[in-house]
Amino acid sequence: MATDLPGLCVDYPNPDLWFAGGSARSGAIRKAIRICGNCPCRLACLEYVTETELSIPGAYGHRYGVAGGLTARQRKLARKAAA
Ligand code: SF4
Questions:
Q1: Is the CB of 35 under 6 A from ligand 1?
Q2: SS3 annotation, the chain
Q3: For each successive 10 residues of the chain (83 residues), what is the average pLDDT?
Q4: pTM greater than 0.85
């Protein structure tokens, strides 16, 4: 966590939403993104994950999950747009 504030995903009863796969994937992702949208540390989370997910060896969770309100693909596209 990049801030002292607890992210809404920290104590969420089903943390798998942020890393969903299979047939429930799209619904879970939409729900995770909606929760991220109400998170008090969303911007700090997005900044942290954007800065670290490519530089930390083995940071696969960041590369494949929803973080900061964006999917891994959306973060990748945002990095390309900012380059
Ligand atoms: S923005 Fe989303 S992934 Fe990041 S701490 Fe908040 S709920 Fe968790």
A1: yes
A2: CCCCCCCCCCCCCCHHHHHCCHHHHHHHHHHHHHHHHCCCCHHHHHHHHHHHCCCCCCCHHHHHCCECCECHHHHHHHHHHHC
A3: 74 92 84 96 91 70 82 88 86
A4: no
